[in-house]
UniProtKB/TrEMBL annotation:
This is Uncharacterized protein. It comes from the Bacteria. It comes from Chitinophaga dinghuensis.
Amino acid sequence: MELVVPFKNYEDAMATLDNGGRFYNLFNHADDQIISQAEVGKAAGVFIGKQQGILFLELATSELSESARKDIFSKFDQELQHNYTQYKPVQLLPSEVGSKGTLGASIIIEGIPQLVDAKTVFKGYNIILVVNTLIPVPIAESYDVYEIKDANTGDTFIIANSKEKKKLPEQKVKVGGILTELNDSKEKFLEVNYYVVEDK
């Protein structure tokens, strides 16, 4: 999970997104007025995650005017246009995610996260391969777990991020992630990839 600082204007966005990609992206060029998936991936800090790149893009452009967003989106190459259509995140209230969210979809929700005891929420196991042995590892040992509250209804939804990442601040945030399900309980949670700190 990474903090995203939204772009403030079109020029800032283009300077970051039209970056030429990584050194091995031979057909991408910086400042060519074309934004590719590889360039978004570089800005998002991902190597192969198309869905995560689109999630980053949506959060990073969230504070731009509608006309600036349209101008940026008009610079997408064909592959990025296709991926944006396929993976465009859905913005939902925390109370709506359980009923309206689709597993595997990118979701953005807002609220104030409160850290909860992961062991009370995640009781299942991940199976990891160590040398030639499968070892069950409690899911609760892998995630920091939060409840995020719907300001309108008071309903909460579970979000989680890897313990290897920084903890979410306990202030109003917009989080973006992929809707996931615990295999043993069928309970849905949002695995957070990026977050934006909302202005107070």
